[in-house]
Amino acid sequence: MSTPKRVAVSSAQLEITQIKSTIGGKQNQRDTLRSLGLKHIGDTVVRTADAVTVGMINTVPHLVKVEEAK
Q1: How far is residue 26's CA from residue 47's CA, in Å, rounded to a whole number?
Q2: DSSP-derived secondary structure for 26-66
Q3: What residue stretches are annotated with the Large ribosomal subunit protein uL30-like ferredoxin-like fold domain (predicted)?
Q4: Which helix (H) or strand (E) holds 15?
Q5: Does the global pTM surpass 0.85?
């Protein structure tokens, strides 16, 4: 199984979508998704790729899908 690609800090807008459940996950991973504004599978938020957001994404890369916003 390959490791998900790490996201880098930039001025780009990122579209972050939750693709997996937090059931059975660690508490810090649940808290990270809530901090990103994701509550349910399929929820999507748009955030700037600043250091804080990138750190949160890299904490839960297996639970989210990240794309550059159009």
Answers
A1: 23
A2: -HHHHHHHHHHT--STT-EEEEE--HHHHHHHHHSTTTEEE
A3: 15-64
A4: strand 13-18
A5: yes
